[in-house]
Amino acid sequence: MLAVRRAGCTILAEEGDSKAMNFRKELIVADGKKVKLSKFDPDDTMGWEKGPKTKASLEKAIERLDSLQYLLYAERKHALLIVFQAIDGGGKDGTVRHVMAGVNPQGCRVTSFKVPSAEEAAHDFLWRAHKAVPEYGEIGIFNRSHYEDVLVVRVHNLVPKDVWSERYDQINRFESLLFENNVVILKFFLHISKDEQEKRLMERIDDPDKRWKISQADFNERKFWDDYTEAYEAALTRCNTTEAPWFIIPANKKWFRNLAVSHIIAETLDALDMKFPKPTIDVNKLKLQ
Ligand code: AMP
Ligand code: MG
To answer: What is the pLDDT of residue 17?
Structure first.
């Protein structure tokens, strides 16, 4: 196995694997970039093809994730917060399931953000997000997040523009506070095309095992595709910071989406250069009673 160091991140690749790459570097939104989603191809696979090599690379990333999570837990210096955002049908649930398969559920908590409850709505919009931030040593996954407050809220004018427009800076300050307190933040936008969304919504109708997922809202929201695109572009542009970067994941191909997300999480944990704490006892003096 070969360890390649690029831009501070180590990636693991089989010797001679020409596909060895730094997913983080490839898919991170460039600092200061004005995002136009039409410039990002949701079908892109960066030269990867579905097959045994890809499967092996995915398995490797998942294994790596498992041992890095163990180290994160042992060291207890950092928390990792992973945010998933996507349009309906974008694959948030599938990606969460996939990531969870690679980590120990004891050190990981998933929070799904729904329409705010009465208690949540009675607080500032970041209250419920802050409450769900993982503790040191743990991984927290947000399935939707505080970004809904500049997405669905903006598209449907759930609060006036002068309120939601202030939220971009408020989110940046919130995420900056977390960063300064050793919370590592990764934000993934799962990018699918309108055609792929239609295909996935139709599958939910055709497949009896998927029908439970259908909601009229998903079909209604399709009418607002362009408004959502604009709202996402604003969030991806205005809330992309070095402290809490966005990644745009081409997500029409589920296998590529899973591959890219797993590698980016593993690369990020790797770059933390974590160490097991020193034992608190002298093991040589330990005696079995
Ligand atoms: P799902 O993820 O399919 O379970 O749906 C959750 C729903 O909650 C989506 O329609 C979101 O748009 C909605 N939602 C999440 N956060 C908010 C929010 N802050 N304000 C209004 N609706 C929200
Ligand atoms: Mg849904």
So the answer is: 43
| Nearest C-alpha neighbor of 171 from the set 152, 188, 150, 189 | 150
Can you give the pTM of this predicted structure? Answer: 0.92
Read off the amino acid at residue 131.
K
Pocket test for ligand 1, best of 114, 220, 227, 228 (most atoms within 8 A of CB): 114
User: For residue 204, which ligand has an atom nearest its CA?
Assistant: 2
Reduced to 3 states, what is the DSSP secondary structure of residue 2?
Answer: strand
- What is the band of 285 on the pLDDT scale with cuts at 50, 70, 90? confident
Token duo for residue 215: 């909601």
Tokens encoding 205:
């109708």
Categorize the per-residue pLDDT at 6 as very low, low, confident or very high, splitting at 50, 70 and 90: very low
Q: Check pocket membership of 270 for ligand 1, CB cut-off 6 A.
A: no
Nearest Cα to Cα of residue 96 among 52, 146, 63, 145: 145
pLDDT band at 172 (very low <50, low <70, confident <90, very high): very high
